[in-house]
Amino acid sequence: MHKKLIFITTFFAVVCLSSCGTLYDVFNPIGSIERNQDRLEVTKDGHYLKHNVGKSFFWLGDTGWELFHRLNKEQIEYYLENRRQKGFNVIQAVILPEFDGLRKPNLYGEVPLINMNPAKPNKKYFELVDWTINQAYEKDMFIGLLPTWGDKVTLLWGTGPVVFNESNAYSYGLFLGKRYRTFFNIIWILGGDRPPKNDTADWRPIWRAMAKGIKTGTNGKAIFSYHISGGEHSTSYDLHNEDWLDINMMQSGHGSGHDVPVWNWIERDRKLLPTKPTLDSEPNYEDHPVNPWPKWDTANGYFRDYDVRKQTYRSVFAGACGVTYG
Question: Which tens digit of pLDDT belongs to each residue from 119-145?
């Protein structure tokens, strides 16, 4: 998608100051590299984020959902450097991506799972994930890492297929936690444009198991959020009291017009106990049709950079711990 990047980082700072491994065939992808163990944590007041060394952290994110799936190393490097120069410090990317991510290989010919089995991750595919996270680290950037897009847990829409249950979600999470236990520039984001529950089903036990696996694999050194589908509220409605959830998220999104009242969602979240940070992790996208569904209808025009700025400023001024551009 084409996006004009419009934020001045200093302004925001002022605002809130073998080729196929089995599941347990885990190795340290960074070898003996001496790494800065700086990681993110929640501030004492519960509303914002900071580095564990004490420095304040304002989440300024960009959605590179298909980063591992559709780009080669040269393109990834170009993208990350472009975003770094523009002041972004979080890139949201998905290991098992949305667009036929289990069947269609990445640009190096590798799929993430052998026979679409979460118990059989493809080590060669994960080598690109390793490399990308390390490139971000070298640029002082964080990866908002989604273990999977939500259609692999619940096929409300999308291509799927559903491959996760509680057992293999835990095992897959354990694999990821062990593999990335020394990568401190990761913010773990579960979900992937799906609700954690609805009126007829509850997928929270699966996400809970995946989070438990990651926490076990990282020896508890992990920070979590959840990317929810667009709607009328944040993750706080269904996940706020989950022990594993550190940061609430919302998606003001692309299908409800220009003035989704994201400020009300932020205000509500900030009043909840226990106190947790909150942010809009997917506002409207520039050049995305306004109200495009159920068909990709462009009759109502497109969101422009003004629309994106308006929504992001609204959420930040309402007290969010950051914002993602889109």
Answer: 999 999 999 999 999 999 999 999 999
Longest dimension (CA), the chain: 56
- Specify the DSSP class assigned to residue 180: T
Question: What is the total count of domains within the chain?
Answer: 2
Q: Are residues 64 and 191 in the same domain?
A: yes
Question: Comparing C-alpha atoms, which of 39, 68, 71, 67 is closest to residue 55?
Answer: 39
Q: Which run of H or E residues covers position 3?
A: none
**pLDDT tens digits for 265-279?**
999 999 999 999 999
Half-sphere exposure of 283 (CA within 13 A, CB side): 32
Nearest to 174 by CA among 120, 215, 139, 122: 215
What tokens appear for 234 in the block? 């944040």
Give the residue carrying structure tokens 């990568």.
183
Integer Rg of the chain from CA = 19
> What is the rounded CA–CA span in Å between residue 168 and residue 213?
10
**Last residue of a domain, which of 227, 261, 287?**
227
pTM above 0.70, yes or no: yes
Distance from C-alpha of 57 to C-alpha of 75, rounded to nearest angstrom: 27
The total number of residues written for the chain in this structure = 326
Q: Is 33 domain-assigned?
A: no
C-alpha span between 280 and 318 (Å, rounded): 11
Which two structure tokens, joined as six digits, stand for 239? 């996940």
Within a domain: 28: no
